[in-house]
Amino acid sequence: MTTLLQQIANGLVLGATIGLIALGYTMVYGIIQLINFAHGEVFMVGAFGGLAVYRWVLPESVRGDWYISLPAMLVGGVVVAVVIAVLMERFAYRPLRNAPRLAPLITALGVSVALQEAIRLWFPNADAAQPFPRVFIDAQVRLGDVSIPASGLLLIVVSVILAVLLQTYISRSRMGRAMRATSQDRDTARLMGVNPDRVIVLTFVLGATLAGIAGVLYGSFITNVDNSIGFQNGIFAFTAAVLGGIGSLRGAVIGAFIIGLIKSLGGQYMPGGTQYDYVWIFVVLILVLVFRPQGLFGEAERVRA
Amino acid sequence: MTALLEVDDLSVAYGAIEAVRSVSFVVEEGQIVCLIGANGAGKTTTLRTISGLLRPRAGDIRFDGKSIAKEPAHVILSRGVAHSPEGRRVFARMSVEENLLLGAYTRKDEAGVRTDMNRVYELFPVLGERKQQKAGLFSGGEQQMLAIGRAMMSKPRLLMLDEPSMGLSPIMTQLIFDTIKELQQQGTTILLVEQNALAALALSDRGYVVDLGQTTLEGPGHDLLADERVRAAYLGQ
């Protein structure tokens, strides 16, 4: 029983990380129908941005005070992630806006490889895993028999809060309305005076903000990062977004928690152990896509009435 | 009378296919002007080019004396040109109220937006009664009302309506046409594209016949109604 609860807790922490990344996948897809395969890399550079702030910006005297170092690293991670995301939209995807859909997709894969290599080459020593400081309170929180690191609990709480804030922003604000209009019918949104370029940039900025925050919190939880963390978690996040129904915010978050749980429980209880935990994720994905191709919360393709 | 919109020898192409070859017309302030013509004559393409969704290949479009031919759609809207597109194109997964708020997207005067929204609800009570419902649940005629109301929400000086009567019952068509007349009386200039040439010409101060991408005939609405060529080609008489 304790093992089960412990694995559920582990799955929720992983799900929270994946969820923050999956929101970016699903938002960008909703607006421009692009699977931005480089979005996992935005998460990765966010983690390295936070690490850079810790190493080269924060004076040693304040590094131990999490309420100073953590916010500073989050700002650093978010700034780096947002700058990279805006540049990739402007110079890689925008010129291909009216190209066949395969062209931006292949470009996204190229951007992904380029970012991984850029970190490996230019971030000092990043050709090997880098220790990441556990900046947040380094303690285990005990809930009954289960214990979660405080930094894992922080990830879950922040992830849920940000998902709710994002959902509220998109459903209530004027810019959120413009985003939904652009996603439903871009030409008609233009007739309303919506500038689609602005909406698309905003979408990348929002996605990168969440990914940057996720990168720093994940680094601090896992305590070491390398240039492949974006690829790994990006694949999980992409799978979560498809599982939940790509384009749906709620679907992305719920899909992410499902995947986190499958990975931790599958690794514990299924044959093959943690070596095969990936398999169960894709088994579930395939089953969902066979019986519900639009994903759990996605809207079925419909002919316009 | 001053010209609010001048379209001058407009030509528009989709790749190698020329949809509009030479369209020229003038809309005076306060008028209702209609473009009539067969399917595929280039009427919708003309409207989409005026509102900035398409780029002209040649020719000019002037609004209030200034060229808007190279401006993007959101700038043209903020200059005062609203376009209710063919096929209504309401945002089906948003409520009536959200559709209207999107119509007022560029406006900053919240109180004015409220007032105008209530005006739309007065004009079309069915929208006011169900303003929280998703637009996709409404009938074709009701969606057409919403599309017109949404276009009005930007407080345009020129309102362009593309086939507002398409697929509507005769009663609903009459209601829409009465509304167009009412909007004119309240000071809005209207450019109308219609297949229902008889009703459109009867309503319009001026009409233009578009044929194979060219404006071929023009004149006051009732003159065109009496014109033998128009009667033969478009009114089936």
Radius of gyration of chain B: 17 Å
The run of helices and strands of chain A is: HHHHHEEEHHHHEHHH
What is the H-and-E element order of chain B?
EEEHEEHEHHHHEHEHEEHH
Shape designation of chain A? globular
Give the quaternary arrangement of the chains. heterodimer
CATH topology of chain A: ABC transporter involved in vitamin B12 uptake, BtuC
Count structural domains of chain B: 1
Strand content of chain A: under 5%
Number of helices of chain A: 12
List the uncertain runs of chain A: none
GO molecular function, one term (chain A): L-leucine transmembrane transporter activity
Membrane topology (chain A): Multi-pass membrane protein
Protein name (chain A): Branched-chain amino acid transport system permease protein
Transmembrane segments (chain A): 12-35, 42-58, 70-90, 148-170, 199-223, 235-262, 274-291
How would you describe this protein?
The complex is a heterodimer of chains A (305) and B (237). By secondary structure, chain A is mainly α. Chain A has a single domain (2-291), classed as ABC transporter involved in vitamin B12 uptake, BtuC, CATH 1.10.3470. Chain A has twelve helices and four strands, in the order H-H-H-H-H-E-E-E-H-H-H-H-E-H-H-H. A two-stranded antiparallel sheet of chain A has the order 1-4. A two-stranded antiparallel sheet of chain A has the order 2-3. In chain A, helix 1 runs antiparallel to helix 11 (249-269), helix 6 (150-172) packs antiparallel against helix 9 and helix 11 packs across helix 12. The longest helix of chain A has 31 residues, at 2-32. Chain B has 237 residues and is an alpha/beta fold. Chain B is built from ten helices and ten strands. A six-stranded mixed sheet of chain B has the order 6-7-8-3-9-10, with helices on both faces. In chain B, strands 2-1-4-5 form a four-stranded antiparallel sheet, covered by helices on one side. In chain B, helix 3 (96-103) runs parallel beside helix 6 (140-152). The two termini of chain B are 34 Å apart. The A-B interface holds A 174, 177-178, 180-181, 184-185, 187-195, 299, 304-305 and B 51-53, 72-74, 77-78, 82-83, 85, 89, 91-94, 98, 101-103, 105-106, 136, 150-151, 154. Chain A: One of its GO terms (molecular function) is L-valine transmembrane transporter activity. Chain A: Keywords: Amino-acid transport, Cell inner membrane, Cell membrane, Membrane, Transmembrane, Transmembrane helix, Transport. Chain A: This is Branched-chain amino acid transport system permease protein.
